[in-house]
Amino acid sequence: MVGPGRPLFVLFGSSIVQFSYSNEGWGAILADIYARKADIVLRGYSGWNSRRALKVLHQVFPKDAGAQPSLVIVYFGGNDSMEPHPLGLGPHVPLPEYVENMKKIAMHLKGLSDKTRVMFLSSPPVNEEQIYQTLGVRGRSNEACRIYSEACLTLCKELDVKGVDLWTAIQQRDDWKTACFTDGIHLSSEGSKIVAKEILKALREAKWKPSLYWRSLPTEFEEDSAYDPIGQDGRSTIKISELEFSRSVQWE
After folding, report:
1. Distance from CA of residue 25 to its chain's centroid?
2. What share of the chain is helix, strand, coil (3-state, %, to 5)?
3. How large is the average pLDDT for residues 2-28?
4. Which of 7, 179, 191, 242 has the most CB atoms around it within 10 Å of its CB?
């Protein structure tokens, strides 16, 4: 730990999370927006499903940790929704088990502390044709993603967990199939922009106290200083926090 203490946000999920700091990803966008406001920690595991996540949940989020996260953003579902293998191999998890696994994950995270908030990201769509052209594999369908996405969002309502509907949000773009993915599954910079905006919208609309929306959090060491950059008049300084605010305002 380093001080002063800030709110801790944890991103927990499969490759959509693990790769969220690369290719101008949504995790990197959040880290940039929340600079000097919150620490964002990555716990992404490419290829994982909800079954595997559940097995390590207590190791990743121990209940006896000295400090608990203020927010956990969770994404599992895309790998769970893949077609089942005849020998039981691979990441497929039947829908009822997926829902139960996600329920257990949500209940554990909500029990970490009274102020730990939980947000689930639903399965984004996929471009089946691009997957085959790029990776040469089949087994994923956009329809299956829809089914698992809707199940996730229904569970969110039941558990009072904030849910973000990525399956619908990404498909609002007319060119989503060509613009939002690198390989039909993983997000391009354009796809990540949509994810970041939807997360920030959900944080803005949440009725949590205290609010975790970036505008509502204090900026660390934001007091005026003689060491701040000199303004155009040559006699006054410009607060660094004001410059940072103008850079982040695009994500309203």
Report:
1. 10
2. 45, 10, 45
3. 94
4. 191
Cα separation, 247 vs 226, in Å, equals: 22
| Mean per-residue pLDDT over the chain, rounded | 92
Length of the chain: 252
Positions marked catalytic: 14, 183, 186
Contact 148, 123 (CB under 8 A): yes
Interstrand relation of 117-121 and 71-75 (parallel, antiparallel or unpaired): parallel
Instruction: Decide: helix, strand or coil at residue 231.
Output: coil
| Nearest-angstrom CA–CA distance, 178 and 34 | 30
Strand partners, 10: 41, 72
Quick one: CA dihedral 41, 45, 50, 51, positive or negative?
negative
Q: In the CATH scheme, what architecture does the domain 8-242 have? A: 3-Layer(aba) Sandwich (3.40)
CB 208 within 8 A of CB 9: no
Average pLDDT over residues 1-19: 92
Instruction: Judge whether residue 226 has pLDDT over 70.
Output: no
Is the preceding omega at residue 62 within 30 degrees of 0, hence cis?
no
Q: Does position 237 have pLDDT exceeding 90, yes or no?
A: no
In 23-44, which positions are buried (b, 16+ CB within 10 angstroms) versus exposed (e)? eebbbbbbbebbbebbbbebbb
Strand partners, 181: 187
Given a contact cutoff of 8 angstroms between Cβ atoms, the answer to whether 155 and 106 are in contact is: yes
Place of tokens 């956009």: 142
- pLDDT tens track for 66-118: 899 999 999 999 999 999 998 888 899 999 999 999 999 999 999 999 999 99
